[in-house]
Write a structure and sequence with these properties.
Elements lengths: L7 E5 L3 H13 L3 E5 L2 H8 L6 E4 L8 H11 L4 E6 L4 H10 L4 E4 L4 H19 L4 E4 L4 E3 L6 E3 L2 H12 L4 E3 H6 L12 H16 L10 E4 L3 E4 L3 E3 L2
């Protein structure tokens, strides 16, 4: 299996014909593609799928491509972001890199083979950057190993349940109501309230941060109007 077959791309382009043309070309080269015509449509995709690479047009309806690029970069520092636009001025290029945080700025029309090579290059960087960055969760003794520290974290039963649920959810994101329902089988307590869930997440977040670099992103972030997202890679260990 090639690298491209392991990469998922979000394509945000409001020109339907161009979007379909690019989508078909990338699929033919083994990429998994989720296409959207706006930033809000992309948000719907992100609620259901994990994305490795982004291709963004700047002229989008609603939120601009530059604003979207900046938002994605802040939320996912390790993602690969390509701006693909008809804007060719130096000022637009500089804004794409400096303000938006894009990795690559391509102008239309772009040669299809160039786009594929750019995505594969970014993909190699992403895959290389994630090697050795995984946490390891031992279900039997409820311990969590961090790639940043030698000490093991001891988890409570509820903390373990929470992490496992987030690990297995689409895009590592779950609604608050669903997370509260995880504890419905507890015999000793009533159903968990959203306030109790907030306290549980806060305690777990604080515990994880004790074995993370000071400047690291939050390990569990709140998703407004939804619930929570796990932002670190965790694998099941032994």
């Amino acid at each position: 299996m090639s690298l491209a077959e392991k990469l998922t791309v979000a394509l945000v382009e409001d020109d339907r014909l161009l979007r379909e043309e690019i989508e078909s070309h990338l699929i033919a080269h083994g990429f998994v593609v989720h296409a959207a015509n706006s930033a809000s449509a992309l948000d719907d995709i992100l609620a259901r799928h994990a994305i490795d690479l982004y291709i963004l047009d700047l002229n989008l309806p609603g939120e601009s491509g530059l604003s979207l690029c900046k938002r994605l970069r802040q939320a996912m520092p390790g993602a690969g972001i390509v701006i693909l636009t008809a804007r060719v001025s130096l000022n637009d290029r500089l804004a794409g890199y400096e303000m938006g945080g894009a990795d690559i700025y391509l102008t239309k029309p772009v040669a299809p083979v160039e786009l594929v090579l750019v995505l594969r290059s970014l993909g190699r960087r992403i895959k290389k950057g994630t090697v050795g960055q995984e946490w390891s969760l031992n279900l039997r003794d409820r311990t969590l190993n961090s790639p940043h520290a030698s000490d093991k974290l001891r988890l409570t039963s509820r903390e373990k349940t929470l992490l496992v649920a987030l690990m297995q959810a689409d895009n590592n994101t779950l609604e608050s109501g669903v997370m509260c329902d995880l504890y419905g089988s507890d015999e000793t307590e009533d159903l968990m309230s959203k306030h109790a869930l907030e306290e549980l997440v806060a305690r777990l977040r604080k515990k994880l941060k004790t074995v993370m670099p000071a400047d690291a992103e939050t390990p569990i972030k709140s998703v407004w109007g939804v619930g929570y997202q796990l932002c670190i890679q965790i694998e099941f260990g032994h």
